[in-house]
Write a structure and sequence with these properties.
- By secondary structure, the chain is mainly beta.
- The chain contains two helices and 14 strands; from the N terminus they run αββββββββββββββα.
- It folds into two domains: 45 residues; 240 residues, no CATH class.
- 14% of the residues lie in helices and 51% in strands.
- The longest helix has 23 residues.
- It starts with a helix and ends with a helix.
Amino acid sequence: MKSVTMHVLAAACLSALAAPAMADAYSTVSFGNVTITLTDLNSGDGIAPSITFLPNANQYEGNHIYGEAESWAPRDTYLTMDHTSKVIGKSLSDTIDTGTAASSASIVGSSSGAGFSSMSLSASAASGVDAHGRYFGYATVPFTVDNTSFILSANTMVSFSAKAAINTDFTVGYTAGALEGEMAYGRLTLYAGGSNAGDATDMEEQVQSVYYLDGGPSGAQSAQWNGTMTASYSNLGSTSATGQFYAEAEVGGRSVVLAAVPEPSSYAMLLGGLAVMGALARRRKAS
C-alpha cells in the first residue's frame, strides 16, 4: 500500500513539474456614438449649412468586415471571415475561433448619415508548449473610400466625431525556444475630404501597440487609449462641393510558443510531494 502511495505521489509531482503556463495576446478596438456637426463658415452669405448624403454608387461595396485566426498545433488551423454589404448602412457581424485564436467583428449600420452607429473588433491568441496562435481583423465603412459621398453647402465645415477606444495586451512577451515574441496592436482611423482643390481635409488616426523587442525584458505589457476622434472637411468655396467620409478599424497580434518552464506553484507542489515521499520512506525504513 505504501509503495502504491509513493508511486502515485511521484506521478503527481512529475505532472506538476510538466504543467505549462499559458501565454495570451489580446486586441479590442471600437467606435460608438457617431455624430455629425455642421458649422457655418460665413454667416453673411445667406446660405444655410446643409449636407446631403448620396446613394451608394457601387451596389457591392458597402460596409465591410474581415478577419483571420490561425493556430499551430495541436493541429494547424486557418480560418477567415469576409463580408461586404451591398449598400452602406447595413449591419454586419461574425466570429471565427480555432481554439487558440479568435477574431470577432461587428458593424451596427445606420440608414442615414455616416452609414454606421458603432463598430468594434475583438481578437485574441493563446499558446502553450509547441502551440501558438495569430489573429488579424479589420472593418471599414465604406469598403472603398469613394462611397460614402455627400454634398456639402458652400462655406460649411462638416465634422464627423465618434467615441473611440483601443486596448492591447499580452501576458508573457517571449520565452526560450520561441521563434518570435508576442505582440498586439489596434488602430482606428476617421477621414473626411472633398473634391475641391484648396479645401481643408482631415484624418485622425489612433494606434496602440505592445510588442516584444529582441533582447528586451520579457513579461506582461499593455497599452490603452480612449477618447473622442474627429475628422472634418471644410468647403471653402461659394458653391456646393462633393465630399467623402470613411471609418476604419484594425487589430492584429500573436502569442508565442512556450518552453516547459514550471510555475512557482508547481515547484511548491513538487517540493511538498517530495517531502511526503521522504517521510514515507523514513517510516518504511524504521519499520
